Amino acid sequence: MAKKVTMSELARLAKVDISTVSRALNDSPLVKPHTKEAILKIADEIGYTVNVAARNLRKQSSEAIGIVIPLAPGSEQTISDPFFLEMVGAVSHAASQNGYDLIVSVPQDEMKIAERRLLGSGRADGLIVIGQAGRTERLNAMSASNSNIVVWGGAHGEQNYTLVGSDNVKGGQLATSHLLSLGRKNILFLGDVSLPEVALRYEGYVKAHNDAGMAYDPDYILKLNFGGQSAFNSVLKFIDEGFVFDAIFAASDVLAMAAIHALQSRGKLVPKDVSIVGYDNIGQAQLSTPTLTTINQNISQGGAIMVDLLLAKIAGKPAISRFTDTELIVRKSCGGAA
């Protein structure tokens, strides 16, 4: 077994004292750049590793942030959902750029307080929570006792925590207005409006109809979770029951792509017979057949903003809730592709 290299040996090889090595490894501005570079080069060559636990104890920092992704029982969502994968990737990249590790927690039980466990144990300096359905009261209480929390979700006026997310009402309005501008009159909405973000997207759907002076049928909504299989089955049933519709606005790209498969299995052409717009702009949206028109809520931008705001909170600085850029991406599924 190879002998572990000590800091004193590193100092001897670099021909400096131990305090200079310690400062260099902690990126102290007191060490001249050329000296720091030389020390780091030697450390890399001899395989010197920092005792992270000891360093973090001295700094009173874990140099890690947590990301909590609550999965509601029966939702059909897993951590492999494309939205979650892209969000974890975006947060991980932004955290790494700031010298932080990322701890991913996926609680399966609503009663388990994963957020408090991560913060209370000192494993994470702060938390990012993805989604707030059924958790607003808990998150408000946590924010009151520990401010190092940032949440991804829609602003519905009941939060006292820092929130980042797309402008869901605007997104819903953009999607629906686009479909109406194409002459579509019977637009089916897919999504569970008991979820705050989906409710806001539906609000935009209603607003677009009202602004256009067009009536909408409140029965033209399938209250679905984010699982693709449920969407596929529900759209098939809606078609088989004889409902007539010429467009779909889905609250996620996964729902939209499941709807495309359901329509195609019944011989319906997309977009000739039914135009479809999704929400999220996940990577798969531009690979579907036809390519999916969607609302881009800029997941990568959202991840970076959440990390920036969380690190500001950890440093004791103010952090204001923000929207990501929310825009319509027109592709072939609606018939109005650029």
From TrEMBL:
<dbReference type="Pfam" id="PF00356">
    <property type="entry name" value="LacI"/>
</dbReference>
<keyword id="KW-0238">DNA-binding</keyword>
<keyword id="KW-0805">Transcription regulation</keyword>
<dbReference type="InterPro" id="IPR046335">
    <property type="entry name" value="LacI/GalR-like_sensor"/>
</dbReference>
<dbReference type="InterPro" id="IPR010982">
    <property type="entry name" value="Lambda_DNA-bd_dom_sf"/>
</dbReference>
<dbReference type="GO" id="GO:0000976">
    <property type="term" value="F:transcription cis-regulatory region binding"/>
</dbReference>
<dbReference type="Pfam" id="PF13377">
    <property type="entry name" value="Peripla_BP_3"/>
</dbReference>
<keyword id="KW-0804">Transcription</keyword>
<dbReference type="InterPro" id="IPR000843">
    <property type="entry name" value="HTH_LacI"/>
</dbReference>
<protein>
    <submittedName>
        <fullName>LacI family transcriptional regulator</fullName>
    </submittedName>
</protein>
<dbReference type="InterPro" id="IPR028082">
    <property type="entry name" value="Peripla_BP_I"/>
</dbReference>
<dbReference type="GO" id="GO:0003700">
    <property type="term" value="F:DNA-binding transcription factor activity"/>
</dbReference>
<feature type="domain" description="HTH lacI-type">
    <location>
        <begin position="5"/>
        <end position="59"/>
    </location>
</feature>
